Fold this protein.
Amino acid sequence: MHILCSRLSFSARLIALALCLLFMSLWVDSTQAETLVGYTQEFVPNVVASLEGVNRDLVKRDPVFQEDTIHTEAQGTVTLEFWDGSVLSMSSESQVVLSDIVYDPQSATPSRLTISLLVGTLRFVSGETADPDDDRIKIQTPFGFLGIRGTDLAVSVNDERVEMAVFEGGPMYFTDLVGKRRRLLAGRFLRFRRGGKQEMEDAIPGSFRKRFEKLAIDRNATLQFASEALGQRFGPGTRRRALVALREWYKRRANLSNEDSPNTLRDRRQRRRERFTRP
């Protein structure tokens, strides 16, 4: 009887240990998979986020995670804000993947933000991750990728072409699938068709501008959201530094002209170095 009880006790301990290990492995996998990268700022139903085969309906203030696929159905729109202050606004019947987003002001790891526009239209205003010397922010499309250096832009994708324009800031670079690179300054428009045919215009067509009027970014809402979300994520001290940087960023972008001379670029790079070397 004693031996039987001992065996049962030992078996129970093995089962408990196995369950514990299984729970830990599932918890680690879930933690790694669900990396919080931002929140929904505004939305109009219906908007769905998918991660690892699980769908969830998004509403205002819902979190979004790395590798989420965001899909807006007919009449649905959504505005997402990421930790660095970048804002993404999607129109109806669009699909975006939040591919790779890294931002932590308390870490020495360089920030980066990559999203993939599979189909549809979006407007994007870059935040602190933007670097005038590097494509730290990218928007992937089936026709190539956009490298963003501090820009308010719009892009639209369908089966036959990609269209893009820079409303403010810049430059922005479009690199097609064979590696050819094109530069767009503020006020410029590019249409790139399947097969490589392109149309570059010095002015943004009125019809293209009109399509994106409803996707305009509300800067006051962006700052209010950043005040709340950054404080919860990184603490009050970091929130204050992030908000100061974000306000300076909006101010700088509002003062940018369409000129992109070497002197202008040099001044912008110097200001960025000074900002990141402040105590």
